[in-house]
Specification:
With 325 residues, this protein is of the alpha/beta class. Helices cover 39% and strands 17% of the residues. The chain has a domain of 191 residues: NAD(P)-binding Rossmann-like Domain (Rossmann fold, 3-Layer(aba) Sandwich). The longest helix is centred in the middle third of the chain and has 21 residues.
Amino acid sequence: MPNLSVRPERMDGARVLVTGGAGFIGSHLVDRLVVRNEVTVIDDLSTGTLRNLGRARGKVHLKKASVLETDTLAGAMEGQQTVYHLAAKTSVPESVAKPDAYWRTNVEGTVGVLKAAADAGVGRVVFVSSAAVYGNSPEMPKVESMRPDPASPYATTKMVGEFACEEIRGMTGIETVVVRLFNAYGPRQDPSAPYSGVVAKFCAAIAAHRPLEIYGDGEQTRDFLFVADIAEGLELAGTQPVNGVTLNMGSGEAFTVNEVVRLLSEIAGEPIRVTRKPERPGDVGHSRADVSRAKERLGFTARTSVREGLKKTLEDARKRSSRSS
């Protein structure tokens, strides 16, 4: 007899809501889900853009609203089976300067999404958290069972969002899954955002023939995960039997910022100029994911090598640059 407890790897025919769905990661997830499902996006377009939803245009229901707008949120939740909550403020330095705004959007917004989902009878909420919750602990790799030690208001809001998932799951019975993303990169990431990924900024600089800015000595390490792989992993987090589970989503490999510059120089086929800047407040020195739980529970492993991902991201940055020139 077939094992009926095993869920399909892909969603098919589901009604899905994606908050922050016009953003960098959200739009790639929407592109993946909209092929087989009915997808609704809530996004206030403060950082996301309609351009990001170009491939899904005509196939997705878009509500231009903040997750803090409770009436709109409640209406959008009706009839949904799965919710992916990505809407958030994400700049570490900005969170240091504006902690109250980060609390409102990232904590109150997340609690609002969870409550609205529970009230509407949604089956599962997948909450996209961040590796930032681990802070500067020297232990490597980062394992989900480690005690959170957030080093910025942004990281703290993500940690509290995780607690909210646990609390509301216990109170209402709604399924929740927490995904701690490591360093996302790829096409559509906005290089002008206040704390955009280093890869997006580097690729935009190369496309514009500007020097790259490196904060600190460049020896800080990051676990880079290509955005198409993230979209696949998030879809799995919505379908597999992982209710109540917290999952790292990374590649399991660590690269220094200097190594990324070297790889980009090889891909670009030209030497790259670099300028050095002081370290930024709240920046984490080293980060690498233990990915064994995601592999075991989701069947997820990163498919895209850093070299291949950097090549695709640089190609996208050059296309953007040529369109704007």
